[in-house]
Amino acid sequence: MAPNTSLSPRTPAAPTADVAPYDALLLFSFGGPNGPEDVLPFLRNVTAGKGIPDERLAEVAEHYHHFGGASPINAQNLALQRALTAELERRGLDLPVVWGNRNWEPYTRDALAAAHADGARRVVALVTSAYASYSGCRQYRENLWTALEDLGAELGLPDGEQPLAVDKVRTYFNHPGFVEANVDAVTEAYEKLGADGRLVFVTHSIPDTMEAASAVGGATYSEQHLDVAATVAAAVGERLGRTVEWDLAYCSRSGPPSQPWLEPDVNDHLRTLAAQGTTAVVIAPIGFISDHMEVAFDLDTEALATAAELGLAAFRADTVGTREPFVRGLVDLVLERAAHARAAGSGEPAPTPAVVGGLPARADVCAPGCCRQRDGVDSGLPAACSADPRS
Ligand SMILES: CC1=C(CCC(=O)O)c2cc3nc(cc4[nH]c(cc5[nH]c(cc1n2)c(C)c5CCC(=O)O)c(CCC(=O)O)c4C)C(CCC(=O)O)=C3C
Ligand SMILES: [Fe+2]
Questions:
Q1: Pairing state between β 280-284 and 198-204
Q2: Residue 135 annotated as binding?
Q3: For a surface tag, which of 57, 74, 125, 387 has the fewest beta carbons within 10 Å of its beta carbon?
Q4: Per-residue model confidence (pLDDT) at position 8
Q5: Does residue 352 surpass a pLDDT of 60?
Q6: Ligand 1 atom nearest 287 alpha carbon
Q7: Are residues 75 and 20 part of one domain?
Q8: How confident is the model at residue 54 (pLDDT cuts 50, 70, 90)?
Q9: Which residues constitute the domain of residue 230?
Q10: How confident is the model at residue 389 (pLDDT cuts 50, 70, 90)?
Q11: Residues 223 and 155 in one domain
């Protein structure tokens, strides 16, 4: 497929401007501590059964305590919930937005319980991760399945009967709204840097085994990032009127040292660039949709200190946050998902998904075996929003 580097066209608004069959939107996120007393129980929730070394946990607890024990992620999700509500209202769409997290309050189960109590029976979920891998796709879907089972049991439903039907918006790394908001943010960062710097895209590292298993749903996790990076760098270059040289680096690795994770680490990469004569960089965190702890600590605290040590001029580009093109794009994605759900149940034609870059749109419904933790290894947990929840 020829890469589409133009940032338009967007999803046509008119024929798909309907949220039916959905009666609620779940903003589905990771969660984070609200104060020092939350830090350890939160970290235990995140790392249960994950084999993260104790030293790494103590180190990450310090990152949170460095910021008073509170993660910025919760305030950012509240802001996104408000922005989505406002954009839906602006378009005259009636869809209440509830917010629930995998690892901390408000928990997914409670958000779904509130939607159910308000009469919702068919929910569309929007995950706050733009890329597909176990961490950004299946793990959310496993937690969603468990939350639905727990809520069903709480409501006294017969075994195996779920209280709500939940569909998920497709993984949106190559949706025009996400890409355009990143192009804006990186262009602004170059204006602030005031120099011709190299562009260093950054995302969360994952184990090599998780990267390999991410191939089941299409392009792998790192390939998805390379696609976005190429599109963003080309569009920024067009705006600046020059060629922008770029790389992809990783942050926040956490497993034991013996376990290979995606590299290079952003700090190592800055050292390499400085040694090769680079004097200025823009650091663009395309792997994250808001400035949560990985951005606040691993980039703004650690990577910017590394750059200063090396005498590199550095500026960190904004995450997409609540930028207008991103929020508009998320609502377009909800409408696209709704149109696909209606098409599946009737003869209504399904809209062609809007994408930019060289990769096709991800599936709405995950393929069997999509985004396992490791090839051939299953967590044993069923996963929602899949063609086969038990595969
Ligand atoms: C790909 C990816 C994303 C991006 C997609 C997305 O956005 O969802 C992401 C997001 C996040 N990760 C977060 C926090 C943590 N992640 C950890 C551990 C891990 N992350 C992993 C991957 C990812 N993580 C992996 C493979 C592990 C190893 C254990 C495991 O296989 O699960 C640990 C344990 C300690 C440590 O080892 O670092 C913590 C505390 C927070 C909240 C931040 C805040 O509070 O602001 C957010 C948004
Ligand atoms: Fe993480």
A1: parallel
A2: no
A3: 387
A4: 53
A5: yes
A6: 4
A7: yes
A8: confident
A9: 176-316
A10: very high
A11: no
- Decide if 110 contacts 100 (C-beta within 8 A): yes
Q: Is 204 annotated as a binding residue?
A: yes
Domain match, 166 and 190 both: no
Tokens representing residue 233 in the block:
């760098």
Task: Check the annotation: does 6 bind a ligand.
Answer: no
- Of 271, 299, 316, the one marking the end of a domain is 316
Find the mean pLDDT for residues 302-328: 97
197, 166: one domain? no
Q: Which of 40, 52, 204 should be mutated for ligand 1, with most atoms under 8 A from CB?
A: 204
User: Is 366 among the domain residues?
Assistant: no
Residue, of 30 and 217, whose pLDDT is higher? 30
| Half-sphere exposure of residue 205: CA atoms within 13 angstroms, side-chain side | 19
Residue type, 343: A
Q: Residue 343 — pLDDT band, cuts 50, 70, 90? A: very high
Confidence of residue 3 (pLDDT cuts 50, 70, 90): low
Cβ neighbours around 96 below 10 Å, total: 14
Q: Domain check: are 112 and 157 in the same one?
A: yes
CATH number of residue 230's parent domain? 3.40.50.1400
Please check whether residues 146 and 36 belong to one and the same domain. yes
What value of ipTM does the predicted structure carry? 0.94
Q: CA-based Rg of the chain, rounded to a whole angstrom? A: 21
Nearest ligand, CA 225: 1
- Asked whether 383 and 32 are in contact (CB, 8 A), the reply is no
